[in-house]
Amino acid sequence: HTDHHACGARVRIPLDELTALLVRIFERHGTSAHVARVLGRNVANAQRDGADSHGIFRIPGYVSTLASGWVDGHAQPQVTDSAPAFISVDARNGYAQPAHEAAQALLIEKARSQGIALLAMHDSHHFAALWPDVEPYAEQGLVALTFVNSMACVVPHGGRRALFGTNPIAFAAPRENGYPLVFDLATSAMAHGDIQIAAREGRQVPPGSGVDRNGEPTCDPNAILDGGALLPFGGHKGSALSMMVELLAAALTGGNFSFGFSWAQHPGAQSPRTGQLLIVIDPSKGAGANFARRAEDLVRALHDAGQERMPGDRRYRQREESLAKGVPVAAADLARLRELANG
Ligand code: NDP
Ligand code: PYC
Questions:
Q1: Phi-psi label, residue 260: left if phi above 0, alpha if psi -120 to 50, beta otherwise
Q2: Which atom of ligand 2 is least distant from the CA of 270?
Q3: Quick one: 14 and 64 in the same domain?
């Protein structure tokens, strides 16, 4: 099946086939078989859900980062049971997703026994969307929140130079009927990935997204990428949230701040070496035990008030379409992926 899109001819391929292709690329370019399986699934699922800035668009960045020696594709995460509700994970300069997976069963067990538990990860690389980190908890009736800091490319409110990362926050809550309520958002006006995509497609970005190398507001994505910087979303409010992400994802975990590492010795490196915090809550413990039904009440009220689209709805729609018809991929990108898998 082929159709046409802004980025040229698009084909659809079955999710399993895309996943297998991506797993081969990761293994071929320097990860263990296990890490390849975790990341291959993560990237394929992002593509499946139409999360364009963190789907196959990221593969060249993964490959060049592995080649640069900046990240360890074979890292063995170290999980420490620090306290009844506190797990520490040292990702040992490896990827965040396999390190999270290594601690996931213990995190769920602790959240169910203590009512709340957290996973504090450091020395990790997160180069992906965050919703895959929280959605599975909500599918099991739990509420989850996560915070990741990235690389200094966002000027704090009123500031003069980039210091924050794009610092996303994701949240997932179970609903009685239907997919979990999930939001996943960068605390910058735009994700760095979306600025790169706008530059590649020759599109201007909305006013308020960033500044050029002289600190002047600009709508030119190349000026933002080339010595300029992004801005937080919502002025001082987004800036405060971004500060919180630095504190929770880095200071609390023992990870680097977004401004606290340098990849200058590793040309081609793109994935931030920072930290991640996950908080998981079991709503069945208190007077909010009927949480999933209350979530349903809230969604109904939102619909009645005129908000048709909940956060996550677009992804779920794309997911259903991808599962029914195949995952859309630009034909040129697919050819490139095949080269990377075989070359
Ligand atoms: P968006 O602004 O595209 O979306 C943010 C959230 O708002 C999503 O949950 C989205 O739901 C929802 N949403 C969007 N439009 C509407 C609407 N009209 N009504 C209701 N809800 C809406 O995300 P960002 O550009 O901020 O982030 C993109 C991705 O980049 C994220 O996955 C993030 O995790 C990732 N990222 C990763 C980083 C890292 O360090 N690893 C750093 C920064 C970003 P829906 O999903 O359904 O569209
Ligand atoms: O899109 O801002 C981003 C991003 C940073 C690290 C991974 N993605």
A1: alpha
A2: 6
A3: yes
Number of domains in the chain: 3
Q: Is 58 in the pocket of ligand 1 (CB under 6 A)?
A: no
222 and 100 housed in the same domain: no
- Residue 124 CA to ligand 2 centre (angstroms): 14
Q: Which atom from ligand 1 is nearest to the alpha carbon of 315?
A: 47
Q: Which residue in this structure is represented by tokens 């980039």? A: 162
Q: Could you tell me what percent of the chain has a pLDDT over 90?
A: 96
Tokens for 123? 């020395």
Active site residues: 53-54, 194
Cα–Cα nearest to 225, from 259, 260, 262, 200: 200
CATH code for the domain in which residue 125 is found: 3.30.1370.60
130 CA closest ligand 1 atom index: 34
Which residue's C-alpha comes closest to atom 2 of ligand 2? 192
Kindly report, residue by residue over 287-331, the tens digit of the pLDDT: 888 999 999 999 999 999 999 999 999 999 999 999 999 999 999
Q: By residue range, what is the domain housing residue 320?
A: 1-68+312-343
Between the CA of 65 and the centroid of ligand 2 the distance, in Å, is 14
Q: pLDDT tens-digit profile of 169-192? A: 999 999 999 999 999 999 999 999
ipTM, two decimals: 0.99
Residue 97, number of CB atoms within 10 A of its CB = 23
DSSP assignment letter at 205: -
